[in-house]
Fold this sequence. Notes:
The chain has helices at residues 9-15, 80-94, 126-129, 131-136, 138-145, 192-199, 224-234; strands at 22-24, 40-45, 55-60, 66-70, 72-76, 98-105, 110-118, 148-154, 162-167, 170-172, 179-181, 208-209, 212-213. The protein is an alpha+beta fold. It is elongated, with a radius of gyration of 22 Å.
Amino acid sequence: MEFNPIDKAEELLYLLREYNPIIKRKSDEEYEWMEEETDLCIVLINPDPNSKLSTLEILCEDDGEFTLSCGVHAHYYPYDEEYKRMCEMVLNILENRCCSADLLYGEGKEWIMGGFFCRENLEHSTQDIFNFAFHESKYLSKKLQAGFWEAQYVFWNSKYDKIVKGGKDITVCDECGSEYLASKSKMASLCPECAHVLYGYENCNHVFEDGKCTLCLWDGSQSEYIKSLKNENKQ
């Protein structure tokens, strides 16, 4: 341990001064869960009443570690590089560059896994974002492919919130409105066709049958904007 997390409290309070931080201790109501009387928790109250992230909390354990909680939580050891990473993450959350994300399964929304993710990562598919669950874990990948799942991306400012749903991997394109297999697209909210036209991602080699691509389920729908872009490319 390079330093005691408690010793960074004043520094953190100054860093977060624009967000009106308050300190909570074990003796405060609802904070009895802290292990030591000397532990402290820096709390920020979210001014957005619609956000699911009501607070951001940084637990500073006396002779222990830091725990950042905001929807999900992450642990940081008391070393300079770890502390720097935590401070960057806190500011990214508060400035809506990062979100708290959860992957849920089934009608009862069983929690599968979660984490903090950069907003730019949300351009990728949920399968890529939660790569371990969908691809690396044989148990989880089989389970997710067999039923409905939901990914919730929650921001400090609720206007950036996003929910992606998959029923056996099926979701709806934000641009053209067609259903498609999320695993066939490199972007979380666009079918392979729209992702290709708008951002140059690799397209599906469509094979149509009964009005739908048998590979990605795109039904041929095109927004007016997509049509205009295709017409420009033809000229």
